[in-house]
Amino acid sequence: AYGISKAEAEAGLKAISAETGMEFVIIRPPLVYGQGVKGNFAAMMRAVARGLPLPFGAVTDNRRSLVGLDNLVDLLVTCIDHPAAANQTFMVSDGEDLSTADLLRRLGAAMGKPARLLNIPPALLGAAAAMIGKRAVAQRLLGNLQVDISHTCRTLGWKPPISVDEGLRRTVQGAIR
């Protein structure tokens, strides 16, 4: 329902633009992280910070796109002034897709704490999640969700100014304050 409502909003925006001549820019971000992040990302941060063992050490073949808040803001600012941005749809990410295990390890490194990862096979994790009614949670942790930012980079001459590691460091630093 969420994805459908977003698609309907985009279609409505394009229709208004066609009728009025108003320019639009659509930005489609994946999971956004940064200072004050909430939800599942914050829960992962808390688990790593507490040194809890997490069963995701073997989840290395999936790839997830993320975007740090600083990179998202940089793209928004770029779109405001760039003449090629008008009436375009852009995907945005940090430009480096991570596995769940890699994300947790790098999050731990940003915190100065090792991520304690157990090597449980992803198929077993997925089956266990399905048995307890958490199939959607398992999909977010075990599955792929990549976005292709090549159109964004090519059209706007844009590249993410902040690396994943720096974005994670800033996120952690903001959580400690």
Describe this structure in words.
The protein is mostly helical. It contains eight helices and four strands, in the order H-E-E-H-E-H-E-H-H-H-H-H. A two-stranded parallel ribbon has the order 1-4. A two-stranded parallel ribbon has the order 2-3. Helix 2 (39-49) links the parallel strand 2 (31-33) and strand 3. Helix 4 crosses helix 8 (164-176). It starts with a helix and ends with a helix. The relative contact order is 0.21. The model has no long low-confidence stretch (mean pLDDT 94).
Secondary-structure map with pairings?
Elements: H1 2-20, E1 25-28, E2 31-33, H2 39-49, E3 66-68, H3 69-81, E4 88-91, H4 100-111, H5 122-131, H6 135-142, H7 150-156, H8 164-176
Parallel strand pairs: 1-4, 2-3
Helix pairs in contact: 2-4, 4-8, 5-6
